[in-house]
Design brief:
single chain; mainly alpha; Arc Repressor Mutant, subunit A; two-stranded antiparallel ribbon; two-stranded antiparallel sheet; 13 helices; 6 strands; DNA-binding; Homeodomain-like_sf; Myb_dom
Amino acid sequence: MGRSPCCEKAHTNKGAWTKEEDDRLIAYIRAHGEGCWRSLPKAAGLLRCGKSCRLRWINYLRPDLKRGNFTEEEDELIIKLHSLLGNKWSLIAGRLPGRTDNEIKNYWNTHIRRKLLNRGIDPATHRPLSEAGVHQDVSSTISFNGVKQENDKMNSPNGFVETDEKKIPAVEERCPDLNLDLRISPPPYHQTQQHADPFKTGGKTLCLFCSLGVKNSKQCICSIDTAASSSGNNTNTAYDFLGLKTGFLDYRSLEMK
DNA sequence: AAGCAAACCAACCGCCCTGAT
DNA sequence: AATCAGGGCGGTTGGTTTGCT
């Protein structure tokens, strides 16, 4: 059972957009807003696939787009975010106002990859190239890929790595060569009270807001998380700490130092 | 000036996720 | 629970531009 095509390909234009097509698309979206991409081409009088319209708008025509060269600050931010998120271009783009995922992806592949290679850093792992061949294990970078999470959990069930001396965040351990200013640390009292599970206090799991000491936050989901924990579904990792597993935290709201 | 290669980037493709029914 | 439509995403392609010989 195949999926119906998103449009009638036989009657759609492909390739570069003309000025007239751009104008039609802009005018239609200004009048009717974004959304319903499938029906948009017909309504706007465009012989284009709906997906093509969406892409053109998002990547090129949107008025809030920032055109022009990336700044050095943006470069470094992209590198940091990529080290954390991997090829999650849309997530990275969410941290760079006016930039699109496609733009960042292209920029990464054409500029930053080479920049890192010139620095002797493997762009895939963010480790020195000399180490890249040696440490090709799956935990060398942070990923939200499910398989990798499972490996991560096996290596560090609570998002921490056990050493002879102390417990330290697994994130830091895996990227010793990175100064990840983006990293968010839970308040110290967790580590003193609950070494076994730094995201619980007194057997209760805390959400990000509570763990940051934000009392009575509207966004507090401790009760939800607690229920999940009690059902044997407690997998509090550093990834969960960021709120991405439960989805309660919009990572776009994370503040960079 | 011509030819070629590398770099760049807009656009496409196919898959996945989510919400509605 | 199954199916479908719509939207979103990452990977890839291919046309254009730039730089070098």
